[in-house]
Amino acid sequence: MDRLEKLLFGIERTARILEVGPSHSPVAPKAAGWQSFVLDHATQADLKEIYREHGVALDRIEPVDFVWAGGAIHDAIPAAQHGTFDACIASHVLEHLPDPLGFFASLDHLLTAGGIVSLALPDKRFCFDYFRPLTLAPAWIEAFEHRLTRHTRRTLLESSAYQMSNGERVAWGQLDDTRIRLTGHLETAKRDADAAGLTGSAPYVDCHAWCFTPSSFELLLLELGALGLIEFRISRLFPTDGHEFFVSLCKGRDQHGSDVQSRRLELLKAMIDELGDQDRRMKKRFKPQIMYRGLHKLGRMVKSAARTALPLK
Questions:
Q1: d(C-alpha 210, C-alpha 153), whole Å
Q2: What are phi and psi of 85, to 5 degrees?
Q3: What ranges do the domains of the chain cover?
Q4: Contact 124, 134 (CB under 8 A)
Q5: Could you count the other beta carbons within 10 Å of the beta carbon of residue 155?
Q6: How far is Cα 81 from Cα 206, in angstroms, rounded to an integer?
Q7: Ordered per-residue pLDDT tens for the chain, 313 residues
Q8: Measured on CA atoms in the order 73, 76, 77, 80, is the torsion positive or negative?
Q9: How far apart are CA 224 and CA 139, in angstroms?
Q10: Architecture, CATH, for domain 3-303
């Protein structure tokens, strides 16, 4: 399957689709015949102005049906349309949301019974979140309890201070072998985080709030479902391809019963394996450089010893 096929997995051509935040890259565009409704943070005209200098195809930005200015997503959509959408597509949206559980609660209002949620998510092992810790369920629960509409200063500081790149790239495929470097600066990150307003009237400051691998995301959904905090279950999880992975969710809670504890342990172990793979890749990347430096140093030592050695008699 290619990228679009994964994001459209299980979604019928006749489905009413809510696409959240597609900006200049819709997955199911109206222009291609999809019965899609776009929810974004700005109108079509405003989005074209925002992206005018970004070198993207402005003609791909479609009319925005619902402008989301903050608060619960379902409040941006007329009540008459609640419960009428067969699917929601959100490509690289969830990691930006201050309150993901609030997002899923809104989708519970908006989707039909058995509705599908299709997600594209960054794998933190292959993007600028490389050095950041994985998100666990308590973090989402805390954000939901505080009904966050802005990222916390801690989140803004962490997101900025630990950013990195691989060569000049901020996202890369697993086989890329360029150099890793830390691009986040503590002083700048702290200053920017301190300056950010945290109330609803303050300008919104965006960042990656949450970090995932495929197993860590599956653990999130398992634990939150077991606690009765989310009404969606995973129907298909596609492995990481490049820097992202894809998840298809179905409305309706999973029934794990007494199996939850053993499955949690399996997924926690799988997360360690995924991070171990990241560690092995990092060492593999650094090894040639370390070997080169070591051999270069050894060569200098040999030359120095040869110059100072006593002549043989």
A1: 14
A2: -95, 135
A3: 3-303
A4: yes
A5: 21
A6: 29
A7: 999 999 999 999 999 999 999 999 999 999 999 999 999 999 999 999 999 999 899 999 999 999 998 889 999 999 999 999 999 999 999 999 999 999 999 999 999 999 999 999 999 999 999 999 999 999 999 999 999 999 999 999 999 999 999 988 999 987 665 688 999 999 999 999 999 987 767 888 999 999 999 999 999 999 999 999 999 999 999 999 999 999 999 999 887 777 999 999 999 999 999 999 998 888 876 554 444 455 455 566 555 655 555 444 3
A8: positive
A9: 11
A10: 3-Layer(aba) Sandwich (3.40)
Written as six digits, the tokens of 41 are 């943070």
Cα separations (Å) of 184 from 160, 187, 193, 204, 250? 6, 9, 13, 20, 37
Structure tokens at 177: 């072998």
pTM of the model: 0.89
Query: Integer distance in angstroms from the first to the last C-alpha of the chain?
Result: 75
Q: Amino acid identity of 114? A: G
Report the candidate in 158, 95, 109 with the shortest Cα–Cα distance to residue 132.
Answer: 158
